[in-house]
Amino acid sequence: MSTIDLGMPTSGIAGVPLLAHGEQQTKRDFTSDQEVRWCPGCGDYIILNAVQSFLPELGLRRENIVFISGIGCSSRFPYYLDTYGMHSIHGRAPAIATGLATSRPDLSVWVVTGDGDALSIGGNHLIHALRRNVNLKILLFNNKIYGLTKGQYSPTSEVGAVTKSTPFGSVDQPFNPISLALGAEASFVARTIDSDRKHLTDVLRAAAQHRGSALVEIYQNCPIFNDGAFDVLKDAQESVARVLRLVDGEPVRAGEGDDARVVIRTDAGELELVPEPGADPARVVVHDASAPNPAAAFAMSRFDGPDMTTVPMGIFRNVARPTYDDGVRAQVAAASPDGPATDDELLALLHGGDTWSVTG
């Protein structure tokens, strides 16, 4: 199996050691001996299979790959991968992963989280990991419901959603995870869906190639508490008409043939979806994921709505900027030009005279 071009300034991902020349890996190498325990029909199975099949492409040693999760159905992920991993604290996976990525540049660090875990109790940790541009790959499974705790509404449930905790319908305005990530200045933002294996794998590949924080929202079906939430996007004919395909360097369009529609920029500077036949070519928006200003990507994310009439899908943003962990390590190196402190130096510090005395 060939490995992907990671496009990094050093070998591997952020200096992560590569496999020895000629050494091969397969999906089996990344499949643990644990019994997979999700409900039958859960979209997590598809995502797990895609990730296990994709990881060999990285060409990294399993001991140099870490998956950190929070709490929720998706957060069982580390059990099922034969890599290092941690099933951590509710909403705090980005914080734990930040410490790991900063202290261990020899690791490829991934975060697996859900819409409740990431956007409710973990919302603060998520936005700061993104704005700092920590070298993390964050997979946000969005099923628009709390599955593990049995069907309460989540921060992405639509207004009016009838759930165990909102029997008369939710009155909360939901988050748009893509808009949120772009507003937090994330350097890589993408959306895909569990049922489109090729698209899912392509997006994972692009996220792995990116140096910095990569947020991938994955629409994922919960067959028990929110079954069919994304059926209109999984129906072959409906998806063609509804999905706005974001392909870098190509016009943003949905539909085919006479029913095709394209995104144009109006005189007011806003984006509008119009029939492609007769559209002014000079106004047609060509997708540019590497645009320094995230305004156009944010405007694209606003086409999304609860009725899923128009759903942008693909990579919204992919730009390069300095990472938090590189910056911290550079400061440490500058402050310690002779390298880390020796054991004798640490003992001298601990037993030195400049200490605090605490009296009762």
TrEMBL record:
TM region(s), chain numbering: none
Cited InterPro entries: 2-oxoacid:Fd_oxidoreductase (IPR051457), THDP-binding (IPR029061), TPP_enzyme_TPP-bd (IPR011766)
Domain called Thiamine pyrophosphate enzyme TPP-binding: residue spans: 71-218
Superkingdom in the source lineage: Bacteria
Coiled-coil portions: none
Signal peptide boundaries: none
GO BP of this protein: cellular respiration
UniProt keyword annotations, A-Z: Oxidoreductase
GO molecular function: magnesium ion binding; oxidoreductase activity, acting on the aldehyde or oxo group of donors, iron-sulfur protein as acceptor; thiamine pyrophosphate binding
Keyword Oxidoreductase on entry: yes
UniProt-listed Pfam families: TPP_enzyme_C (PF02775)
Matches recorded under PANTHER family: 2-OXOGLUTARATE OXIDOREDUCTASE SUBUNIT KORB (PTHR48084:SF4), 2-OXOGLUTARATE OXIDOREDUCTASE SUBUNIT KORB-RELATED (PTHR48084)
Protein name, UniProt field: 2-oxoacid:ferredoxin oxidoreductase subunit beta
